[in-house]
C-alpha cells in the first residue's frame, strides 16, 4: 500500500493524507453479512452513566466484523475470497471460504491476496497466512496473532505492520521477541500465524484536521492547566501558567516516570526481558 496526498484545496487537505487502499480487492463489495454484528457505543460511560474514560464519544456508526483469532479449523483448506477494510482496527482483514462452505474473517498478513490458499493445523507447512503451534514453527520466522494461553485465541501482534520473532524454544516453552523489544515466553502449544500484519503504512497517515479525529470517536483532549482548580490539580491562576507542579491526572496521580503495569499481573512471570523505557523503542 501507499499514502495518498491530496491537492491543498483547504487547510485540512493540505496537512492530511489517506491510505490508497490498493490492497483492497473490491472497494464496492459489501462485507459478509453473516459475519456482521451490531457495535454499541458507550461514550466512555459505565453502566451507571458515569464517565470513566474521558474524551470519548460520537464517531461514525460501525458494525463489528467477527474475526477468527483461534484458527481451530484444522487441515481444511480455505481460499482467500477478498481483502477488505475493517473500520474497527488498523489492519486489513481477509475473507476466507473453506472447502465445506464456511466463511470466516482473519487478519490479513503482508503479501496475502485474493485467490491464495491458507490452512491451519499441526502438520501444515509454515507459509504466509498459515496457522501452526509454536512447536511446529521454525526458529527465526516472523509471526503474528500469537496466543498467550493455549486455545484462547491470538492476543499479541494484531495491529497494522506488527510482527514478533520466534527466537528460542525449549521442551515446553518458546521465546518470542515483540516489536517493543520485550522478550516473552509462551507455551509451545500456543498458536501463531506466519508472516507480519499488512497495512504497515498506517502509522504514516496524517489526519490533517480535528474533524477526522471526531469521526473516530475521539473528542478534544483538554489540558489540565486550562481548567479551574475545582476540576484539575493543575488548574487555576491568572493567565497562562506552567502548572506549578509535576504533571498529574485529575485525581492527582503523577503522569510521568511512574510504573503503569500492575505488580501482580499474572502474565508478569512470562516476561523474560522487559522492553526499554521510552517511546517507539525497537530492537536493534
Automatic annotation (TrEMBL):
Region Disordered, as annotated, extends over 1-26, 216-284
Annotated Gene Ontology cellular components are: large ribosomal subunit
Q: What SMART domains does the record tag this protein with?
A: Ribosomal_L2, Ribosomal_L2_C
Swiss-Prot/TrEMBL keywords: Ribonucleoprotein, Ribosomal protein, RNA-binding, rRNA-binding
Q: Which GO terms describe its molecular function?
A: rRNA binding; structural constituent of ribosome; transferase activity
User: InterPro entries of this UniProt entry?
Assistant: NA-bd_OB-fold, Rib_uL2_dom2, Ribosomal_uL2, Ribosomal_uL2_bac/org-type, Ribosomal_uL2_C, Ribosomal_uL2_dom3, Ribosomal_uL2_RNA-bd_dom, Translation_prot_SH3-like_sf
Q: Where is the composition biased (Basic residues)?
A: 258-278
Q: Which GO terms describe its biological process?
A: cytoplasmic translation
Is RNA-binding set as a keyword in this record?
Answer: yes
Where is each Large ribosomal subunit protein uL2 RNA-binding domain found? 44-120
Question: Which domain of life, per UniProt?
Answer: Bacteria
Q: Report domain Large ribosomal subunit protein uL2 C-terminal positions.
A: 126-254
Q: Does the keyword Iron-sulfur apply?
A: no
Subunit annotation = Part of the 50S ribosomal subunit. Forms a bridge to the 30S subunit in the 70S ribosome.
Q: List the NCBIfam families hit by this protein, alphabetically.
A: rplB_bact
Family as reported in the entry's similarity comment: Belongs to the universal ribosomal protein uL2 family.
Please give the function described in this protein's UniProt entry. One of the primary rRNA binding proteins. Required for association of the 30S and 50S subunits to form the 70S ribosome, for tRNA binding and peptide bond formation. It has been suggested to have peptidyltransferase activity; this is somewhat controversial. Makes several contacts with the 16S rRNA in the 70S ribosome.
| HAMAP family noted in UniProt | Ribosomal_uL2_B
Identify this protein by name: Large ribosomal subunit protein uL2
